[in-house]
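Hi C.,

You asked whether I'd gotten around to modeling the 408-residue construct. I have! Everything is below, sequence then structure, no commentary in between.
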Amino acid sequence: MTKLTKKQESLLDELLKDFDGDAEALLGKNGLMMQLKKHAVEAMLEGELTDHLGYEPNDPAGNGSGNSRNGRSVKKVQSKDGEMALEVPRDRNGSFEPQVVKKGQRRMEGIDDVIVSLYASGLSTRGIQAQLTELYGAEVSPTLVSNVTNRVLEEVQAWQARPLDPLYPIIFFDCLFVKSRQDGSVQSKAVYLALGINMDGEKELLGLWLAGTEGAKFWLSVFNELRTRGVEDCFIACVDGLKGLPDAIETVYPHTRVQLCIVHQVRNSLKYVIWKDRKAVAADLRTIYTAPTQDAARAALDHFAERWGAQYPAITPSWERNWERLTPFFDYPPEIRKVVYTTNAIESLNYSLRKVIKGRGAFPHDDAIKKLLYLGLRNVAKKWTRPIRDWKAALNQFIILYGDRMPV
């Protein structure tokens, strides 16, 4: 905030000297602050007309100029402080095009930002109407809310098509589910997210995609889009058993290692276990993924099979089927291991988005889903921290392992 000059402070003191704590007279709908704002806007409009005409009011230089002032018209506009009735100056020729409050404009700059902010927090259209009325005395229609937030769609489209970096050492993939109306019925749709860790060790959401079903064909289209947007390589892709994803990513990025989420593998294993055994089974599973090497992990899995295989015959085969994609993290040092063996980085993002869509019911169409999730993502991204604390150490490990694939 710009510091006031002594002259400005003196003027404010002079204005406020008679208020004696009367908040309504100062900040109310017709209070001093509102009148000051109204006066300032009208002064700017007068300045714009002077610039348009080329001479000051009552200046003889305007005689015979071919255009002149022609009174004022009253125009009501909504602002964050409530409704203002502005006196807008006119010119006789009707050629004056004000910029502070443009022709046809019914809202002062700022109230649109409030609408978008309230929408991004998860408020429904009706909730936004109530908030604006209560906080600012501004009455808005559902159509206005939709029109204002729909402008975000252009930003969403540009964001989804933006160029990406050639290399993201780590990319996480996950999805969340939302309800959407389609052909008169409510259907569940998956929203797939790709969260990259860039060369600076910072999180970057690469895109979001909506689909009714998942599969290799869908994922091929996603990875081909990422390649078209500039992504040439990825060292590790961390996924949560998304159908068709491992095969698709290995088709488009054949040198990428696919790491299945260990946490989800453990959860899937424990669903077979009775309550009294869960603690012991979980402890034995932990010896597998906390082993120092892949060989030690294999020995721990064999020991698990000997102890629990007869009682819970589905667990060990599940680990064995996925072994090749459960164990890549053993090839990395601890600072990388602890990040890539789970999809927690993107699941925390999904948790934040679920809070935004909670209670919204079914969305009217896909654009409404994209609009809200994009705004939610934009808010969440402001709080992101680096997923790897000592990123430079991790980056040096990547250089040792994949030096020939590092960008010049």
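If it helps when you're writing up: The chain has 18 helices and seven strands.

Thanks,
B.
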